[in-house]
Each structure stands twice: as structure tokens, then as C-alpha cells.
Amino acid sequence: MGEHSADGQDMRGDGMTESVDWLGRPVLCHECRHEPMHREGLCRRGLICVRDRRARRVDRFFRENGGMADAYLDHPYFEVRAIAARFCSLFRLPPLLRDPEPEVRAAAASRLPVVRLEALVQDPDPRVRVVVASKMTGRSLLRFLDDPDWFVRLVMVRRLPADLLPAVVHDVEPDIRRWVARRLPPAQLWRIEADPEPTVRRCAAERATAGRLEALARDPDIRVRYAAIERLPRRALDAFIDDDETIIRELVLRRLSDASEREDDHGTGT
User: Fold this and answer.
1) Residue 231, CB half-sphere, CA atoms under 13 Å: how many?
2) Residue 18: what pLDDT?
């Protein structure tokens, strides 16, 4: 099969045969100011085209012709501006931080140093704030502590220094508290032993030191108890041999009968 349809439409690339611009009008190469580039093979309708409304085709155009990105930073279609922002000169990026479209602001922010992003900490769109949070480090991340968007706070928690994580232990979103539980220093895990969400407490049981495991082994939730008893020092197992749940009793008996376990340690670091 050839690469083009009968009317010259490119059939390769993203599997689409349609070539229309952002206003829905057909893309006609002979009407385009880049028609000389087309003759040289630097653009191709349906595959590499800055006028096409398909983002991947615009992206291919700037990848092949990055030097032209600066000329498209004021294009009326926001998708073109956002993609051009990935390839344009760094010196042309600051004005884009005030673009009315969040995709454009986010694209510009992703390439600028964090010292230039101060105004975007309070950007109205969470997609932009996510980019800013992903570039910040240290205590500056605490500026997103009360961000209204949970994913922005999640990005913050993943990057926050471990010694600052206690500030986030009461976040309203359980998934964020689970990330806190995965990253808190073991000596700080006591802060989440009473978390209302069992899966958060289970994360604590999977990392807690031996001195905290017995309390977690008495947790009302079977998932938390199981994780704690899996790691309890062998000498403490007898206290849980009569647990209400069969699976817990079986775990205790299995561990007690396992002659390969060391008496003084079962992965707790004690």
C-alpha cells in the first residue's frame, strides 16, 4: 500500500486520514505559507503539519523544524502555542506565563527555572500548579500544603523532605496520607497509628520499628494486624495465637513453626 490516498492525503503516522485545521477547514498545502517546505519534505499533510488540529502532527512539525517555534507563540489556537512553547527560545517563554490558557502556562513553566515561577504558585489551574510543585524543593513545597487540588498536594508529598512530612499527616485525602506513611522516618510513624483509614495504618505496620508493632498488631482492622504480625519479633507472637481471625492465627502458627526464623529479628531492624 502506498503512503498517500488518491487525493494526496498522507495515510501514515497516527492512522488518521483527515487533515483539517483548528477551525475545521481542510488543510490545503498550496494555500500554506510553508508550501516550499512541503516541496522539500520538511512538512507533510496528515503527518507533519503546523496547521493541522491534531496535536501530534503539530508536535512533529516543531520537532522537525524547531527553529520556527518562536513564530507561533501568538497563534490563535492554544494547542499550537502550547506545543511551540516546548521548542521555542527560552527567552520567549516569560510572557507565556500570562497566557490565558493553562496548557500554555504549564508548558512554559516546565522549561523555566523555578525562580521565575513565583506568580504561578497561586495559578487558578491545578495543571499549572502541578508543574510548579514538581520543580520546587525543600521547604518551598510547603506552600502547597493547603492547595485545594489533591493531586497538587500529592506531588508536594512525593517531593517533600522526609523531616517535613509530619506537616501533612492530617491531610483529608487518604491517598496522600498513604504516601506520607510510605515516606515518614520510621521513628515518626507513631503519628499515623491512629489514622482513621486502615490502609494508612497498614502502611505504618509495614515499616514500623519493633517497639511500635505490638500496638499495630492489636489494630481492629485485619489488614493492619496481618502486616504487623508478619513483622513482629518472634518472641512476641504467642500473645496473638488466639486472634479472632483464622488467617491471623494461621500466620502466627506458621511463623512459630518456622525453624528458619531468627529469634531476635524478623525484618524489623531490631
Assistant:
1) 24
2) 78
